[in-house]
Amino acid sequence: MIRARGLTKTFSRRKETVEAVKGIDVDVAEGELVAFLGPNGAGKSTTLRMLTSLLEPTAGEATVAGYDVVAHPAQVRARLGFIGQGNGGGFSYKVVDELHNQGRFYGLAPEVYKERAADLMAALELGGLEKRSVQSLSGGQRRRLDVALGLMNHPPLLFLDEPTTGLDPHSRANLWGHITAMRERYGMTVVLTTHYLDEADSMAERVVVIDHGEIIADAAPGVLKRRHADDSLTLVVATDDGAAVRAALPDDLGDAELTAHGTGLQVRVRTAQGAEELPVVIEALRVAGITTTSASARQASLDDVFLNLTGRSLREEAAA
Amino acid sequence: MTEQTRTTTTTQREAPRIVTRTGPGKFFADTAAVFTREILLVLRDPFTLIFSLLQPLIFLGLFGPLLTGTFGGGFGAEGASTADTLQWFVPGVIVMISLFGTSMTGSNLLYEVMTGSYERVLATPLDRSAILVGRALKEFAPLLVQGLLIAVVCIPFGFTFHLLPALFGLALLGLFGIGVGALSLALALASKNREWLFWGVQQSLLFPLLILSGMMLPLEAGPSWMQTAAKFNPLTYMVDAERVLFGGTFADTAVLWGVVAAAVTCAVGLLVGIRATRKAV
Fold it and tell me: What would the CATH number be for the domain defined by A230-299?
């Protein structure tokens, strides 16, 4: 569905040249759900805008939905839905008017766009809002209208740029439900950008981590975590004999981090498979005569992956 | 590149039907689609058209009497009356509407650029030039209606006009308005998220252009540099042509110059606008 090679974009502002995207190679197969994950300014949106033919690449090439983005931009656009960071619906328009306008933009016949508009409004919980102005809609409703606008041409490929930014957790979950349902319904390939780690983790089947205009990792979230980050185990033991604890721990674990905890010790160790390793560790300690008073396993997150790959935390950057 | 194998869901799947317009008809069809979206705003909310006439009416009501008082017989006839002043002033005010309304049309686009709906339009397969032309063309119809309204409102006060030449004059104004509208859209695209830039440029051009067209006060009374500057102002030719046309005459060189001024403004505006649309993403 997407094949990009050496995709590059440089912007020149005044005398400064900024290399926003540095020669990205990426392939997306039909039916995939891919998330581009990275901090603000990493080049996610720029990459997306080049793939949607909205921005001409400085170098490199990309074929999207069977057409070259530079040579046949209109053919590319006809085959994709694009949901940008802003709101697609004109604020002064009525909801149904904008959907019909969108249908006309795609060259659909009136009976086709009217039927699709009605159908999408029903599917996206916009029924009854036909005559309302876009301005008067809530943030969540406006975002669902954006999705409806993006689907008017029944695209085989849907792009979403930061789709849930600015929405409250309830609206986010609701929007995701709709996107997933629409994907099933139309058999769409979905490509999105996000800086929400948990969103990429739970929704995407494949995560492409972008930093400083380059792809630094590309795999399923589980694979990324297994490969680039460890789970961690935290236990509290009823002894202050650090040497005994270290000796008792299984050999395949990483170096244990011990800190005083009341009269005992807190033990932190890293492991690839936290959930499976935890009972093994408790048992090993028990055999050595050490009592465990509390124990927990924390699964690696995509932030750990990002931290290990770049030395920076994505969560902190997003908050900054 | 992917690590997992996926099976595409085949249940419930509809084959996407992609329609693509091609050939020379695409430009016209796309322009019509954009025009339809723009004109919808006017049709859905016709009162904005009426409200935008408030300012010109204030000019007519408050500025007109001052003109009569100040210039007295300055408009040809001995002891000029309100009717004489209107005959001179109304065509100018109608030109003023065309400049006020159309020069501000970019502010709508500016707003759409900021909220994101312009980006959505750009992401559709619409012809890039059609996106500009369709928007600019929308200026034509409101001007026709507004000009006619102003003229009709002034009839009870002694304003007279001949329908055919006046309609021709309004059509000319529509053409001029498309050009100014296109320039305003180009300015909006160049301003992008800097709203102050758009309003700064628009406001600082508006009044010099108006005054230097002889629309509000006759330039004959002004210094020669002003008269020279007016010669380079397309608005001057529009005002002159409208005065002659509303006076009921077709056969006058002023009309010809008006046609040239309107056509040039329209062509330059569309050219600049289309370039701005293609460039700005």
Answer: 3.30.70.260
